Amino acid sequence: MSTSELMNAWADHNRKFENFRFVYPVISRRAKGLSVGINCTPNGMCSYSCVYCQVNKKDTSAKIPSVDEIIFEVKEMLSIYNKTKLSEHFPRVEEKNRILKDIALSGDGEPTLYPYFTELCKQLKDISEIPKLVLITNAMQLEKILDFNGEIWGKLDAGTDEWLDFINRPKKKINIELIENNLKFVVSKFPLRIQTMLCEANGCAPSETDIESYVGIVQRIHQISPKNLLSVQLYSVIRQTAENSVKPLSREFLEGVKNILQEKISNLSIEVF
Known about the structure:
This protein has seven helices and ten strands. By secondary structure, it is an alpha/beta fold. The strands form two sheets. Strands 1-2-3-4-5-6-8-10 form an eight-stranded mixed sheet. Strands 7-9 form a two-stranded antiparallel sheet.
């Protein structure tokens, strides 16, 4: 399998799979294999309106699934995976890249806004075939995650209020200190991976000041619990975004941010995608 074919698989996060409505398989570069996503907010409900959002059309009238509907589809997907390893769905992806890595609460919106989030997590915890449960969240609303049994992948795209407002466009007024404090709380309780999207939009990219402030935030989060901060994932745009002004930043830019972080926190795993 060529690198370009694998990149094509990474770029295709189509949430349509056979007759499934809420559960979908993707080849994930950050999960390093097959990830099964749960789209519990198909109406696009989110507390951010990120400039790089890759959900082109949000159907605000879409049905919110019940917990039973999601659990049924998860079990069906696991059954298909155990029988076929999804070879027919990903015919150009080698089996080593189709190994199931996780079940991820993700989708078209912010999963913690799903009204039955706590009950869903309880039932997912009882499915023994799940190798790992992952919550991909913007870390704005954390009151529901206390009983979560897995890794938290929390968003931190900015180091300053100005870049937070520009890149994430929160729907209610917040500041970067709130996100920092929320991630400090998460890392004190759960295994955490910080996810950072670095991109250009409307001709603007993160400034040196923003990167410096961002590094300081990561340092302070790391100090709370070095063992629980599993990694920082730096990445740029690879899939089509809803806004055409958004462009990926170079690998060199991302490596530069990684080097700054590594100089400050030598024992932290920092991944560039």
